[in-house]
Amino acid sequence: MSEEITIDDFKKIDIRIATVKSVEPHPNAEKLYVVKLDVGEEGERQTCAGLRPYYEPAELVGKKVAIVFNLAPAKVRGEISQTMMLAGQDGTTVGVLTPQRDLAAGSKVY
After folding, report:
1. The overall pTM is greater than 0.85
2. Which of 30, 35, 21 is nearest to 84 (CA)?
């Protein structure tokens, strides 16, 4: 069982919709992509996503995805990662979280 958090803890997480603009293999990691994301008025963000075993770049480019917008930036094997794409996993199946309707890049998720 995971650790419980309060509603105030949850409110600290800023989840947004972003559009995947580009996906390139990470130069220093076999399982990672370097992904450029359009977050609407907030501009562009870059993330390192462990999706190479599960997606081809063409499957992700243009897709709307949910991201943790206010995650502190970190260097991941030499590349800056400014956010995190949200995904689910069921055994060996991995799927990025996408909105059911066409929401604009930058839309907040509640």
Report:
1. yes
2. 35
